[in-house]
From TrEMBL:
The chain crosses the membrane at residues 18-36, 60-79, 91-111, 126-144. It comes from Ferrimonas lipolytica. This is DoxX-like family protein. Keywords: Membrane, Transmembrane, Transmembrane helix.
Amino acid sequence: MFFLRNAPLTTGQKVEKALAGLIGGFLVMAGTVKFFDPFTTMFTSQIAYSGLPFPTLSRWAGQLGEISAGALMLLVLIRGSKMTNIVADKLMLAGTGLTMIIMTVAIYVHLNPNVPATVLPLQSKPPVMTLIVMALTAFNFYLYRRNPQQRIG
């Protein structure tokens, strides 16, 4: 956060960049840990208990989707000033949209009565963390669209 404190940005831009970094980093980390036990077992169990179609594809789509969404947000954060507005906007929209789709599926899994709390993150049946990620992602996209960006073109 030190680099944001001294950056010549408005407060809204600083908040947006901090949120993009937080959400992007969280998504990359969350997708990556699902490659290792015990998280891979828990994630596979969630998919099996919830009855999501094509379990193997659902597992890979969930993991790679989280990593991709986070990477897109981090890419716009780190390299956004070197991109045209159109490219940066499309990447941020893709990252935000992908995050919302993934979190919507996560809500379904959390609320599915066949999925026990023991295989869920924080062993919590209410999708509290999922809703927080969705709210922060929506707020970040709102700030991104509201704040003028300093980019080429």
